[in-house]
Write a structure and sequence with these properties.
Length: about 100
């Protein structure tokens, strides 16, 4: 793990990591429920610590907003998964 990686285990730490400059890889170290809509900054990635880390977005939530040069991997999600925040013409590579 590099200094630009951050392991998160709570919804609050996930939200904080998405807003912290310099964090490039956000790693879910626990299953999270009730996650509000979150947006990755350009160049950030969100991935599970294991191949089946579960993230459940809050009811009515828009889920994960992707912008530019984002990646989401090794996640099992419930609710809306990901949507294009408009900074890119398309989404690709979301497992």
């Amino acid at each position: 793990m590099s200094s630009t990686d951050k392991v998160v285990t709570t919804v609050d730490s996930l939200i904080a990591a998405t807003k912290t400059e310099g964090i490039k890889a956000i790693i879910l170290g626990a299953e999270l429920d009730g996650v509000p809509p979150i947006a990755l900054s350009p160049g950030q990635m969100l991935r599970g610590e294991t191949g089946q880390t579960r993230v459940s977005f809050a009811a009515g939530s828009d889920g994960l907003k992707l912008s530019t040069d984002n990646c989401a991997a090794y996640l099992v999600s419930r609710g809306r998964r990901a949507f294009n925040g408009g900074a890119s013409d398309s989404l690709r590579g979301f497992p």
